[in-house]
Every structure is written in structure tokens, then in C-alpha cells.
Prior knowledge:
Oligomer: heterodimer
Shape of chain B: elongated
Structural class of chain A: alpha/beta
Distance between the termini of chain A: 32 Å
Number of helices of chain A: 9
Helix content of chain A: 25-40%
Strand order of the largest sheet of chain A: 6-7-8-3-9-10
Strand content of chain B: under 5%
Largest sheet of chain B: none
Strand content of chain A: 15-25%
Radius of gyration of chain B: 22 Å
Amino acid sequence: MIEVKGLKKAFGENDVLNGIDTVINKGEKVVVIGPSGSGKSTFLRCLNRLETPTGGSVVFEGTDITNLPEKQLNKIREKMGMVFQHFHLFPHLTIRKNLTLAPVKLKLMTKEEADKRADEMLKKVGLFDKADSYPDMLSGGQKQRIAIARALVMRPDVMLFDEPTSALDPEMVGEVLALMKQLAEEGMTMVVVTHEMGFAREVASRVIFIDEGVIAEENTPEEFFGNPKSPRLKEFLSKVL
Amino acid sequence: MDSFLDKLYDTFIFEDRWKYLVNGLKTTLIITVFAVMIGMVLGFLVAIIRATHDRTGRFKIMNLICKLYLTVIRGTPVMVQLLIIYYVIFASVRIDKVFVGILAFGINSGAYVAEIVRSGIMSIDKGQFEAGASLGLNYSKTMKHIILPQAFKNVLPALANECIVLLKETSVAGYIALEDLTKGGDIIRSITYEPFLPLLAVAIVYLVIVVGLSALVGKLERRLKKSDRG
């Protein structure tokens, strides 16, 4: 589904990604971990080209998006849901409008279809009663569940999560992870950048360790956590577990 | 007391002199309303071009033109601009003075509106652009449906203030012999040689409009605040 070849990204003089190669297949749940500043978020943001790579390529469902013109890129992005650390809900719109804005303005659905789809997704994330509220009236955990619902309304083929629980109070992390786990069980293809090792162990089909801009190790969660090979990963795991 | 009533009669009633004020007020309001419209359209356009250039690098030449416009308009007094537009640009054309006033004050206000709106756009978190992009919305749709409504709300008090300033600034329109509210009061003064009452009346009319406008904006702000309840 997503093929990444020799992906490089530099911000000015600062090399963040130094050649990443990996393939993400349909139905996989890939969890990306690594020390802060290792480039894991940048890697994720290159997948839907919120960051433009400075080298290598990203191919999504057969289309090379690395140099794709904006118009076609936007069509690709419709198929890639993204959830941000800081939610980025639209504060001036009700929850329902947050969910329906994109499908309606992109003419993918009529307003009625979008409203119906939004209500379904709000029920799925357990926040149907908040449909007419505004984002600032919700807790962090609720906001993130709405952000997930907003991405799901678009019927994406893959969901990208950029540290979805890092900005949450501890007691709200659980509800978001539970929802992500539910999505995983339903067969959604997911790429998740996170510090939640428990989630990685439980849900991931594969765990990737990014360090200094390269994939230092990738494996099934059992092998990854049970039998880490590289010294850097051993050191990292000893700090976080 | 009698002499005061006499003065009052002389200033406003005799020979229908109050009409100078009413007609002047009409002209002032017409100039203000249309100048605000021109200013808003021009200001939003310039702000969007400038903000888009700063964020994406597009519109290089347009951005330069906008910068020149802002520098010239904000660097010279509105009265000088009004005089130049009337006596230089439209020197050889017979043209309605009210139209000249609308144009001059509109172009002037646009520069201030542009900087207000641009600051509003810049105040919106970059994440809002990214959220729009991640949903497949292009730059202009993101701007229109996500960024501008929030930016507009943030700068509404400043924009309203700009309208109020504009209303008061039109009082220099008399310099091209435009009979606005201020000029109306001044004409009465020149007829009666009694400055206090007509000028006080003029001041009160401006004050009432400004206070009314401020109250209206306060109401609108409270309505927009609905989405901010914590």
C-alpha cells in the first residue's frame, strides 16, 4: 500500500531522515517508536507529504507522491487519514461540522450523506451526544476521539497517527488507545508514532525503531521487545520500559 | 436663558439650518459605508496575497505591489491622499465629489484593514492548515473555510475600530468642498458667527454613532464567542 524508498528529509543543514526503506501493506498496524528528535514524526509526515522529502520516494497505492502536483496530492490525501498530537479540530465549527466540512466541500458527499456518515462515526467513537458542541467544550480525550472520527468520515485506506496520546492527561490516554485498538481489530491499516509501548506490544503487527534518521530495527512486537538486537534499541527499551 | 434659546433657534431652526447637518450626516454615512466596503474587499485581498506569499512563496510580484501600496498609504496623511486624488488624479475630469471621497477613504482604509487581517491570519495555528491539508482540502478551500473565519473572529474588534476611525476621518472631506457632517456644522458657524452650538451638535452626532457602533460590535463579538465556552 505504501512503499518508502531511500526517504531523506533535511531542514536546511539539519538532516532528519537519512534514507528510510520500508513497505506498509494493507491491513498492517505499524508502530513507529524512537527517541525524541529521531525523525519518527517527520517520517510519518512525509507519508502524506505534509513534509516534502528532499530525497527518495513515497509511493501510495501505485502513485509516486514525492513530486505530485498539489491537485493530485489532495486526492491522495483524501485516502490517508491523519490524527495529530494536538488534535487540530476546527474551533469555529460544531463537532458535526468538523466532520462534514471536508467531504461536503470536496463534493464527495451531499450534506445529508455527510451528516448521516458523521452521526455514524460519532456513535462509533461514543460521542454522538456532542454533535452540536464546539471543540473547546470537550476534554482532550474527547477531542482526540473526534479527530479520529473526522478522519474516518473520509473512508481512508490508511490512518496515520502522530503521537495521538502525547498531549493528553494520563487518565484520558486509555479511551483513545481503546478506540485505536478497535480500529485495528476492524482491519484498518495504521501507522502509529507513539511512546505507548503497551499499545505497540498489544496491537502492532510490526514495530519500527527509528534512530538518527534511519530504521535501526524492525520486527514483530514479540521479537522486538523480547529479543532486541541492536545496542541502541536495547538501550532505548531499558529507558522506557 | 432667552439668549440661549435665541441662539438655538438661530443655529438650527431659522432658515432650516438643521438641514446642513442632516444632509451632511447623509453624505458622511454614504462615504463611510461605501469606503468601508472598498476597504474590506481591498484589505482582505491584500492580506490574503501577503499571507499566501509568506506561507507558500506564491504571488511574488503581487506581493511587491501590495507592499508598495501599504507603504505609500500608511506613510502619508489621508488628507493629502484625498487632495491628490481630487486635484491631481481627477484634475481634468468632472466627477462627483462623493465618489472621490469614497474612493480616497476606501483605498486608505484598505491598507489598515489589510494589516489587521494579515495579523489575524498569522495568528492561526499552523496545525489548522495541516489539518485542512490532511483531509484533502486545497490551500484556497482551507483558507476560505478554516483559516479566514477564525482570523476574522480574532480581528473583529480591530476591524470595528477601523470602521469607527474611518467614520471620524471622513471629517476632512470638507477640504475638497464636500459637504459632510463636519462641513455642515462649519457652514452654520460661518453664517451665524456662533461656533459653539453647531460644532457641539456635530460632535454629539459623531459620538452617538460611534457609541452605537461599538455596542453593536460588542453584541456581535459575544455571539461569535459562543464557540469559545470552555
